[in-house]
Amino acid sequence: MKQWYEELFENYGQQYDKECFTRGTSGECDFIEQEIGFNKKSRILDLGCGTGRHSIELARRGYISITGVDLSETQLARAREKTNENNLKIDFQRYDARELPFHNEFDLVIMLCEGAFPLMETDEMNYRILKNTSKALKNNGKFIFTTLNGLFPLFHSVKDFLTAASEAGNVNYENNTFDLMTLRDLNTTIVEDDFGNKKELHCNERYYVPSEITWLLKSLDFKIIDIFGAKLGAFSRNDRLTTEDFEMLVIATK
Q: In this structure, what are the phi and psi dihedrals at residue 92, rounded to the nearest 5 degrees?
C-alpha cells in the first residue's frame, strides 16, 4: 500500500511546477551559493529533489557536480525532461531517503520545501533521513534544509493558514486536526494530477520545534546548528525564527 506522499507526487510533475511555493527557487539558490562561498566545484546532493528546480538552477549557475534524489519516478522524469531542455548535466537517481547509499561524498546536502523530511509516518523514519544525510556529507560538509515549524501551530490555526494557501494553488486542504502530543497535523488533501484526476489523500505531517531539531542534529555529529525563519525565495540569516514562521530554515555543519 502506497503512503500518501507517494500518491501525491505520482503524475504530479507538471502541476507541481505551477504551485505558488515553487516560485522562490532563484532567491533560495542565491542563499545556497553564499553559504558555500560560490565554490562551483562543490559536490551537491539535492535530497527529495522533486522536479529538480534547485538542482537545475544551480547547474545553470555553473555548479558541475549535482546529484538529485527522489522517491517519485514521475517527479524524476519531469526533472530529467527539464534538464535535457536546458542542455544541462545532473545525475538524477531514484532512492528512498531512508535508505541512501552515499558515504562521505558531498560538500553540501540541500533538502528544501519538505523534500522527504518531515513527511514520514514515524519519527524514527524521519530520523533515519537525517542520519543518512550525515553519512552522505564529508567532514565540514554543510546541510541546508527547511521543515515545518512546531512553534507556528501553538499560536495559530494550521487550518486557516492552509486554507489561505489553497486559494493560490492547485491543492485544497480539509479536515485539519493538529495533535499537540505528537506535533502532527492530520488533514485531507485534495489535489489534481497532470492528467486531471482528482486525488483525496489523508496526510500526516510532523512539525518540529527548534530544540528537537538541534538535539537530533547534535546526536548525528553536527557541530554548528543555526535555525532561522524560512521566507519563500528569500532565505536569510537575518530572519530570527518566530511563531509567525510556518517553516524554519536549518543550516548545520559537521
A: -95, 130
